[in-house]
């Protein structure tokens, strides 16, 4: 018994260390009650689940498909745990999630933490791109932020993550605060507010961005002084100069122009434990960076901020009014004053979103992070993808860009680097195609029918392209007048259908009409030619199709999901077998998860098909016994891959 008691004390202490039950005394009491059950003969293997269940009274809300969206509408700042009860890691994180919920309930106003069993309510997981369990996402007024599991899954990390996106209240008290603030950040939004000004819309918008830093100057005197100095900063043209590493104690880098002054402190973040100190010296266009704390090089990739002559900015600079909202950025016009309603949250969001990236960008990893980062507006991207630079299409897109600001991101992409190749693949652009102008959504959504759909893309014909046609194309998209572009193989010919066997072939352009046929139950196998499991399954699937070919209300089909795209489906593995039961469109979908033997699938079809059917054909339709099972699901030329 002494050993058991010692084990219990160790277990409880371990829970405290990992944040499972924190310092709550009643949590330890619940654990001891569970241990008492073990002492009375219960199995120790159920001890941990019992401890967790003993605390169920403090668990967060468990949502489902019917109440998820209403709850999120009523609670715009909510963190969600997408989990599966059978998942070991989900079981580990759920008690931590409950404890984090207790901590965040103390916020004013409280931050809600909820969870949803995504293995049961798969449509919610699909809607928000859940690919693994557990997944944690924070929803803030429509923006969605993912939790980085590499930082740990303790309650402390969860609370810190939520605080990062909900507590963004930076106040500039004097000019020195402004100088330090602008030195540290490239993208800045500064509110200049007098005494008693209602800044609630500004505070709300400040929660929506990872890469834009917000700050306020409050009070009649402070706001006016900071507005004056901010105008001087706006007149300066500053650059971030990449210095990189050095094996020597000094390094020289050429500046873009004469007359620049460079700061001594590196622009990129410095860790507290780093002792490196630097001195910047400029002669003409040459910048020399010397390390001053040691006679040796440095291993970090440092950057320095360099600006033009400040004396010019003293003489002529813009004057920013109070109240106003000013945005500073390292591109295009470099600063802008918001000219809309400062109490309109959505308008302010759109204005900032339009200026947080250049009007025209080149595709690289940094650009991908910016245009695909979560934001409240989920701005789509207009890509011009071409194997060669300086094409006619590129100049046309650049000409249209100023009229598209705030409506879409405009991005130019080649087809050489890995990120460019992935972009082309995402946009459905073949490697040997000419220049393509395509609009790609960065988010899924809900169509007019209420059915969720994955991110869509749209193509504009290159022939006769003009800037006016590009702008008209975006306007048509905004008004819902465009049909999505779907990658598709050619529609099978009548001869292909006649000789193709009992398994019907669908392609991207025929999938919706076939699967949404209200009179038929439609079974679809989404496969990949290179998939070994698909190869193993294909003769079994064809055997099922031959057995049920007499059932006129059931259509058994296949679709190569690597060569065709389909609306409303997110295929995450191969083979994926889905039934679209007969009935009103849009149909609900039923995924097959069982044995792939024909008899087992037949039983499942009887359970889920709308139309009832007989396993054997009428005598007049019965074929010869013992028909061989043909090679089947894949094309003959694919079987040798």
Task: Report what the structure shows.
This is Thioredoxin domain-containing protein. It comes from Polarella glacialis (Dinoflagellate). Belongs to the protein disulfide isomerase family. It holds the Pfam family Thioredoxin. One of its GO terms (biological process) is protein folding. This protein is 34% helix and 21% strand. The strands form seven sheets. Strands 1-3-2-4-5 form a five-stranded mixed beta sheet, sandwiched between helices. Strand 20 and strand 21 form a beta hairpin. 30% of the residues are buried. The N terminus and C terminus are likely disordered. The radius of gyration is 31 Å and the shape is globular. It folds into six domains: 56 residues, no CATH class; 108 residues, Glutaredoxin (3-Layer(aba) Sandwich), CATH 3.40.30; 116 residues, Glutaredoxin (3-Layer(aba) Sandwich), CATH 3.40.30; 70 residues, no CATH class; 122 residues, 3-Layer(aba) Sandwich (Glutaredoxin), CATH 3.40.30.10; 145 residues, Glutaredoxin (3-Layer(aba) Sandwich), CATH 3.40.30. The longest helix has 17 residues. By secondary structure, it is an alpha/beta fold. The N and C termini lie far apart (64 Å).
